[in-house]
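Quarterly update from the structural biology core.
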Amino acid sequence: MDPDYRSLTDFLVGLGTDSVPHTGEKGFLAHLIGVHRDLESWGCERDVCRAGMFHSIYGTELFQKFSLPLHRRDEVRQLIGERAERLAFVNCVMDRASFDRLILSRDPYRITDRVSGTIIELDEQDYHDLCVVHLCDWLEQVPRSQQWDYRRESYRNLAERLGGIANESFDRVYALAGA
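Predicted structure, tokenized:
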């Protein structure tokens, strides 16, 4: 377990994430904690787990019920670390269509920032870890949202690209869809 887990969750509670609805009966804070715990169970390193806990802190293309202003990025960076914050930031601002086009390709990893319209370049490790966070986020919530067909092929491709526990988790979660 992350030695700073309590301070991370206290920060999120202080932002009011515990009162923001998310999927089904689960609130935003519970979802963030769920993604963090799932990433830990997948054996991910601390930066990736922290990125998972903050994966939608600035809002995302799909989730807009909470959005910490981007001028607070330094505050988040100091709390969770530079790499974790960058992964979370990219997950928040990425244009998902540009992300999906990269899943079956290899370097260069260029994702369009849907907010600024600029291109974000990632190295292979950061792109891999972004894929892990993004897939884990979806697998944690899809049984509650019941949006089984939303970008299903992209999530399947992510799972296959990552292999191992990511692929096993995809199969286990999507077996709940009955299809």
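Residues 5-177 form one domain.
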